[in-house]
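Below is the record:
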Amino acid sequence: MRMHRRQFLAMAGLSALAGIPAAARAGGLTHIAAIAPAGGTVIDPTLLVAGSAESAAGRWSTVLAPALAQGLGSPSPLATHLTSGLDGVTGANQFDTQTVPDGATALLVPGAALVASLAGDPRAHYDFGRWVPLLFSLVSPIVVGRADLHRTLRDLVRDRPIRVAVSSDHGIELATVMAMAIFGFRPIPVTGFATPQEALTALRDGKVDVAQISDPMPPQALDALLAPLEQAGATPLFTLTDNVRATVHGKPVPSFAERFNQERGRPPAGLLYDAWKIVAAAASLDIGLMLPMLTPPEQVAGWRHAVGLASSQGALDTLKNDAGRALVSGPDCGRYLHDMTGEITAVLMLRRWLAVHMAEWRLG
């Protein structure tokens, strides 16, 4: 006898219910916590670090591992597992494919891993939009360079190439490449800069025209970093976001939207700008602390309590605004994750734009 699909699903559902305790069935299966082992205590909490010890995630792990221990009831700093690379792609892949959502393992991931996923990096096999955010450290990357952002009538009919220092085609500097295109330039990504210091040296020496400073730092350190660049004619052009209001020599650096409005007399708009916004939001994530999708609510609450306790007791004070960071925790992270995930139309526009231009970039 042939079994219809609906009958099959009904029988499968009854089989599953047979394995669930009666008390759970009586209460209704509205939450995964009703059928998954869960409790207020996180057993053997672990930090999976998306990056090497020298990466942003690696440096953060040395602060967060002891800071979260008390709130999670751990007698010693949390166990940490480092992965390879600086952009976090390897660790993000491992987290999404191998981590059981039992609340025991949280991921420390940099914004570079999110940018790689949005851009369609073939190495990225994860969907960060499904993760449960616990803590975000947000920054406002600064775009520095030699570029006349004011467009004249003559600029409308002539080619304006500009060289942008990037770590890779899908690197965290992608937002700067796109920003230059929105301003009317023809961006030429110059790859191979493994560290921001290498990119800034190339900018100082005239090998590139624009570079991105993603590392957060206090105003005094930023002034010192920019001094030799300013002597070489490179100045701060804008910040990618206004998460943290950056100042140089006591004067605020305008955000991209503010600078565009100054130069064009109107706010930026259009499909490419919509795509740029999600990349810029992802690039402005210094580090994120995440749990897997379907983590039981009790374990989510336990981690959030630990984050709140660490923050209230001053364990994270050195990482706050005076160091160029803004910390956001708990449910407040939701809107920022939405900005980083974006609408599907914006992601498709980003992929289409990259497909058109990447071939010409590789040809030089």
